[in-house]
Amino acid sequence: MIRLLLIAAAIALLAVAPFHFYTVTLMTIMCFVVFACSFNLLLGYSGLLCFGHAMFFGGAAYVTGYILKSTPVSIELAILAGAAVSGLLGLLIGMLTIRRQGIQFAMITLAFSQFIYFILLQSPFTGGEDGMQAIPRNPMFGILDVTDNFTYYYVVMAITLVSVFVYYRVVHSPYGEILKAVRDNQPRVESLGFDPERIKLLAFVISATMAGVAGGMKATVYQFATLTDASWPISAEVILMTLLGGLGTLLGPIFGAGIIIWLNDYLAGFGEWALISQGVILLVVIVFFRRGFVGELSALATFLANRRKPAAKADAPKPASAH
Amino acid sequence: MFDGISTQLLMGQVLIGLINGSFYAMLSMGLVIIFGMMHVINFTHGAQYMLGAFVAWLLLNHLGIGYWPALVIAPVLVAISGMFLERVLLRPLAGLDHLYSLLATYAVALIVEGLVRYQYGSTGLPYQNPIPGGVNLGFMFMPYYRLWVVVFSVVTCLGTWILIEHTKLGSYLRAANEKPQLVQTFGINVPKMMTLTYGFGVGLAGLCGVLAAPIYQVSPSMGSSLMIVVFAVVVIGGMGSIIGAVATGYMLGVVEGLTKVFYPEAASVVIFLFMTVALYLRPAGIFSGKEQN
User: How far, in Å, CA of B117 to CA of A271, rounded?
Assistant: First the structure.
């Protein structure tokens, strides 16, 4: 019951947010929330460290952009198509890499993302170094005009809510449980008659598709797609977001994405300091707060609950988002 | 179309390939040594390579110390900073998932690169060629410095290989890699060896940086742009094999150079294409053998 009320409150907050904050920043945060959730599904719940997640994000951004530029297809279909292509790419790369574990998997996905990066750089349709400019926002369902940022905000919000809900459902499904079991003890799961590689491959494909949704949304929010979207710094940023928020926590990526995007926005005028501060945050999180923002908070909540048993419930609120 | 390619162009690109390959080989060798001993993928490697070049540049421009002394001083300084990093940051993370040490080294790379860029800007700084001139081989012009780089890197790689595979110190290292506790009971200080190994691997990166300074410009991003290729080299060669890393490094350098002659558009992706095929055919790396853990 309390949980439902909290969710309702969060949605209400999201719905009134554009009256108080810059809509583009809010939409960027939501794109990266979806992206970070997709990454958390991999690293947090299946233990697969993908070092090139930007290939799905950036790849889908280009596909969505290209469809919108060259056809009159409605915007939601273009985003879906971007996600589908991204999922296919995930399937292809996953089939080649899923048997490798840990660090090896990380290095290989990194190399593949670089591969995709160069392909995007040289393909004629992407516009090379200049990126893809002036991506139109075709009417939604073919009728609803979304060229206005304020209107489009609610579309992005709806897609984000659906994506986060799907992510929640995947994590809490029987499949999600098996996934976590594979992460914790793969031989055991195998001995119980499951096929860990197929389970992980499915997670990789779901994650790639979700990252594709995020990339497609980003292309429509900014109305351009650039090589940066598919580059290594974006892959690293999503790792930072997930880790900062709390690995394997449901709400972690949401907070992580919010904090990092807000920080990037704030530090945008300070040149190098945005990257340096990211490095420092990453270092501090790794050395001192490996459970991340949400992880440490819930640990604190349990700690307090154990100390003062009666007041336990009231002491474990999830703080309103840190704007 | 193949008739149109002159020997000059072909040999020129093979030479450029060999030079790039020298850097790939030395850098991936350092990575493999560090990985083999500590199970850390050193993401700072690129930044340490860049630091090597920058230290050489600073020595020349602020203290008037030239290339040859810098070839010794810069790697030693980079190695010392690396050993400090290992003691302060990597050792406390040693018992945890490898993910953390990997990301920690990445964070350090971000900070180092950012600070250097903040201080010196992102444009490349020129470094004077210490051995100007060259020799005309008849079919092509061979600058002395490039010849020096190739020879020097081959000697370094060979020397390192002998050190690790054929000396007593090397046997300690390999033993400590297999069974650290057991080696420790024999009275060998394993943590100290780890620090020294990391310092050695990082020093190699610094040495590479000094070698690269006169060829490429000294810039903050010179390391990060090279590193992803080097990671691919390590993946192709097999993570635990020094010989594999070195051979793959030279080979891919030449392959990349040749691609520039025959099909320039594919030059930047050929290494990754190679990696895909290698992964498909030999998932554990093409040089994986007994050393695969």
Answer: 10
Instruction: Please name the residue of chain B whose CA is at the shortest distance from the CA of residue A122.
Output: B265
B53-82 average pLDDT score: 90
Distance CA(A18)–CA(B16), nearest Å, equals: 55
- Token digits of residue A37: 């959730």
Q: Give me the DSSP letters along A225-275.
A: B-GGGGSHHHHHHHHHHHHHH-TT-SSHHHHHHHHHHHHHHHHGGGTTHHH
* ipTM confidence: 0.82
Whether residues B115 and A99 touch (CB distance < 8 A) is answered with: no
The pLDDT value recorded for residue B3 is 55
CA–CA separation, B232 vs B41, rounded Å? Answer: 13
Give the pLDDT confidence of B78-115 residue by residue, as tens digits.
999 999 999 999 888 887 888 888 889 999 998 998 89
The chain A residue lying nearest B120, using CA atoms, is A272
**Confidence label for A207 from pLDDT (cuts 50, 70 and 90):** very high
Question: Would you state the torsion angle of the CA atoms of residues A104, A107, A109, A113, taken in this order, to the nearest 10 degrees?
Answer: -170
Q: CB neighbours (10 Å) of residue A186?
A: 17
**Partner residue opposite B265 with nearest CB, options A49, A100, A122:** A122
Residues of chain B contacting A242 with CB distance shorter than 8 Å = none
CB contact under 8 A, B118 and A107: no
Look up the domain containing B152 and give its range.
Answer: 24-123+142-218
Distance between CA atoms of B108 and B30, rounded to whole angstroms?
18
The minimal CB distance from B100 to the residues A122, A232, A286 is found for A286
Residue B245 Cα distances to B164, B175, B249, B285, angstroms = 14, 20, 6, 10
Interface probe for A, chosen from B24, B111, B120, B221 (most Cβ of A below 10 Å), is B111
CA distances from B249 to A75, A218, B32, B254 (A): 46, 38, 12, 9
Instruction: Check: CB of residue B245 under 8 Å from CB of residue B234.
Output: yes
Neighboring chain A residues of B106 at a CB cutoff of 8 Å: 236, 282
C-alpha torsion sign, points A139, A144, A147, A150: negative
pLDDT given at position B169: 84
Checking if the pLDDT of A314 tops 50, the result is: no
CA-nearest residue to A271 within chain B is: B118
Does the residue B283 lie in any domain? no
Residue B231 near residue B34 (C-beta atoms within 8 A): no
Angle between helices B222-237 and B98-120 (to 10 degrees): 150
In a domain, B205, yes or no: yes
Nearest to B53 by CA among B78, B80, B85: B78
Least confident stretch, A25-29, A75-79, B235-239, B254-258: B235-239
Amino acid at A42: L
Could you give the number of structural domains in chain B?
Answer: 1
